Amino acid sequence: MILFYVYGSGLGHLNRILSYIKIRKIKLSSCIILTNSQHKKFLPQEIKMMCYPDSFFKDHELFFSTLIRCIEKYAIYELVVDVFPCGFYGELSILDRVNVKKTIVTRILKTSYFDKYSCPHYDDLILLEKGIELDYYKYSNLIYLSIQEGFEYSKQKLPLKEPFFFIIHSEPKEEVIQLYKLAQLYQKNNEHIYIQTFSKITEFDEKDVTFIFSEKPILPLLERSVKFFTACGFNTFFATQDYRQKQHFLPFKRRFDDQFKRKKYNPL
User: What distances in angstroms separate CA 36 from CA 1, 51, 266, one per listed residue?
Assistant: First the structure.
């Protein structure tokens, strides 16, 4: 079986790995995902999920012993990492002691990450976007992949108030509010605003806003919106390529992920 270590609070990491599984034509029932994400309901039931709180990943000894037990119990022959190369908390610093094939799915990082952590050796490095500084990585094989899959869309039917703008951003709510304020700057014809998010925003009392909570993206909102507004997280950035002409980006600061660099180096 293949073990995927997917760390991140939002849905982006899980979506990216699901796209990776599809592109590489990996059988779903042969996949196990180890994650801190609470959004497992959005993944196919054939994939085995192992969900732990953040405290688990901060405890390096507990994390490593659990990882080894999982490898032995499920006869894991490959570990695919979708998190920073040494982990978010340095929990992968001991990865060289793990005797299975090791693959890392990379994305743009601030170089300050590598001031704190040294990259363990990976057998395969999967390059998904431009702007990744490979000099900081240790690997044997470089593989270029294009995530061509879009979102997994909801089947929910929604009566739409046209014309409208569309905002899609999972969390946190402070960033959702910033995207809303950006959209307001473009309102000229009393456009209604749909906001799709996981954030529980209660302070809004705007008649021109409709919230959609905890749903997969709804395709008609993308197709029929006059404009739509997003951050520059990896998954949203590449899943919305077909709608660039009406898309407005607002990059946000992250501890290590560099949304500003993603916008700069990848085609808009």
Answer: 20, 5, 28
| Cβ–Cβ under 8 Å, residues 170 and 11 | yes
Q: Per-residue pLDDT tens for 28-57?
A: 999 999 999 877 777 889 999 999 999 999
The SS3 call for residue 106 is strand
The 10 Å CB-count burial string (b at 16+, else e) for 232-255 is bbbbbbbbbeebeeebebbbbeee
Q: Which residue has the tokens 């898309």?
A: 247
pTM of full prediction above 0.85: no
Residue with tokens 């949203």: 236
> How far apart (Å, rounded) are the C-alpha atoms in residues 26 and 242?
26
Block residue for tokens 């709608």: 243
The class level of CATH for 2-144 reads alpha beta
